[in-house]
Structure formats: C-alpha cells, structure tokens
Amino acid sequence: MSRSSSAVSAAPSGAQRRLGASPAPRRQLRRRKELFWAVVFLAPALVAIGSLRIAPTISAVVSSLYSGFPGGVRPPVFSGFDNYLDLWGNEAFRETVLRTVVFNVIINPLQVAIALLVAVLMTRRIAAPGLWRTLVFIPAVVPIVGSSIVWSIALRPDGPVNAIITALGGRPQPFLTSPDQALASIMLIASWIGIGYWMIFLISGLRAIPSEYYEAAKLDRAGPIRTFFQITIPLLKRPLLFVLVADTVANFVLFVPIQMLTNGGPQNSTTMQMFNAYRTTYTYSSKNLGAAEVVILTIIMLVFVALQFRLLRDDDRAAKGTS
To answer: 61 with 295: CB under 8 angstroms?
Structure first.
C-alpha cells in the first residue's frame, strides 16, 4: 500500500503534466502568431520596396550591360561595360557628373544649416510659434510642380522679383536665362521647398534634448554659442545626419524644377545627372545608355550616403569610448 501510494504521489498528475508542458508550445504558438502578423503588416511595404526599388535597380543594372541602336531598331546585345567606358570618355558627361557633385556639396550643407537655424528659432519663446512654423512649412506641402510654376513667373525678366530689385535701385537680373545664374536659381527654388520640411525633423530632435543639459550649461556660465556647439549639436547628431542623408538623396534625384524651368539649359548649365539620364533615355531613345547613367548616379549617391553614415558610426564609437 505504501509503495502504491508513493508511486501515485511520485507520478505527475494530468494537471501537473499540462502545466509543465504548456509553456514551450504556447511560446512557440505566440512567436508564430507574432511572425504571421509581422509579415502581414510588413508585406505592403516589402512589396512596394521590391517592385518600386529593388526590381527597377536590378533591371537598370542588367540593361546597362547591353547596347542597342537608339529607338529600338535593333535588339540590344550584351556589351559588358562598353556603355560605362563610352560615358566616361565623353567630356560632356564628365562635366555633368562634376556639376551634380558640386551642386550637392553646396546645397546639402546649406539647406541643413538654414533648416537648423530656423528650427532653433522656432523652439525659442516667440509670439505665435505655431503660425510661424506653418508659414515656413507651407512650401513643403505645395506640389513641386506648382512651386516650379510660381518661381518661373517670379524669376522672369519682367517678374515681381526683378520689379522689387528695380524699385530698390538695382538692375534686373536674368536668373533662369543666364548660364551664370541658372544653377543658383535652381538651388534657391530647391531650398525654398526643402527647408521647411527638414525643419520639422530638427524641431523634433531639439525637443528631445533634456533640459537638464541647458540648465547645467547656465550654471557653468556657458554662453549661447558655446551651448549650441557643445550641447545642442552633439545631442542633435543623429537627427542632423538623418536629415543630411535624406536631403542628399532628394537633391541627387532633383528633376522637376530643372525639367520645367530650364530643360537643362542655358548652355547645359543646369543639366544634372538625373535629368541627363532622362534625356538620354526618352529624348535620344537610348535606353541602355540611360540605364548606365542611372547606375553611375546611384553609385555616387551611395558613396555620399556611406560617408555620412560613417560619420555616425565614428561618433557612436567615440561616445562608447568615453562612457
């Protein structure tokens, strides 16, 4: 009797077996459900990325390795890197690449610096800050086609901008019709559109900085300039780099103002790499050569982005080393 009772007591009951065996299957079931719903919610984004980004990129790389007669008169044949060699042997193409790089080297830091300055001003104690933010942000919500039309009217030789210059005693400027001023005018239009947009991200970054740092700076009797460069900029590094990377991508593929306002002119002074690839593909009907230009543009853009991410990685390593 004692043996049987001890055996019964030693044997796990049905409830104990269920309690002991249930956590692992339940955990697996929960993970499967989480994976299922993750796939469901990510599927539209993954499909969009695959169909709108990855597939066109692969298609462009493959197409750039073929050569065909413009207009599709003859089927393209595999030619390896001949398209790339032909492009780099073309002086006009090299000038376009250099112009695109110089354009981005100038406009990207300029836009980010102005957006940061405006963001700092908008986080100070000013009257009706919401109204001022809305006014600065309005150009970002206006379609770029509409903005280009407005600026084409404003910068005409007989437009309102020249009317103001004349009223102030100056001479009318050619702006978009001058090889010396057209590219600067495109920079002005692109900055007018983009500054308000990037300002929103930087305002969010500024709001996320703990106020204790500024209070400590006041106790240390640090002036506004020292506080800005030793507290605000270091703690705003990540939002700044995000804005810089996104702004770089946007300006490398800038197309609409150039196509609408100057069509790459005058004298190719505003011909950027994106517009040049479009013109080669659709105006000159050279699809394979245009694909090679897009691939070169993508590589240059990725180099810029990689350098910017390298700055972020170095900053993280420095921060870990000091901690």
So the answer is: yes
In terms of residue numbers, what domain contains 29?
A: 18-64
Residue that the structure tokens 């013109």 belong to: 279
Tokens (6 digits) for 156: 């005409």
Give the Cα-Cα-Cα angle 128, 114, 159 (nearest 5 degrees): 85
Checking if the pLDDT of 5 tops 50, the result is no
Specify if 274 maps to a domain.
yes
Q: Is residue 180 located within the same domain as residue 241? A: yes
CATH of the domain at 155: 1.10.3720.10
Q: For position 87, what pLDDT does the model report?
A: 92
Number of domains in the chain: 2
CA distances 294 to 61, 147, 186, 272, Å, are 9, 26, 21, 11
Give Rg (Cα) of the chain: 29
Residues 30-75: pLDDT tens digits?
A: 888 888 888 889 899 889 988 888 888 898 899 999 987 766 667 8
Tell me, what DSSP letter sits at residue 77?
A: E
CA nearest to 288, candidates 137, 136, 62, 88: 62
Quick check: bond before 109 cis, omega within 30? no
Specify whether 54 is located in the same domain as 179.
no
Alpha-carbon distance 12 to 100, whole Å?
A: 76
Handedness of CA 73, 74, 78, 82 (dihedral sign): negative
Q: Which two tokens stand for residue 145?
A: 């086609």
Candidates 36, 223, 194; CA nearest to 114 is 194
Q: What is the pLDDT of residues 121-167, one digit of tens each?
A: 888 877 777 788 888 888 888 888 989 999 999 999 889 999 999 99
Give the pair of three-digit tokens for residue 203.
Answer: 């305002």
Contact by Cβ (8 Å): 84, 300: no
In a domain, 56, yes or no: yes
CA 179 – CA 174 distance, rounded (Å)? 9
pTM, whole model, 2 decimals? 0.81
Provide the token pair at 283: 């105006």
* Cβ-contact 195, 111 below 8 angstroms: yes
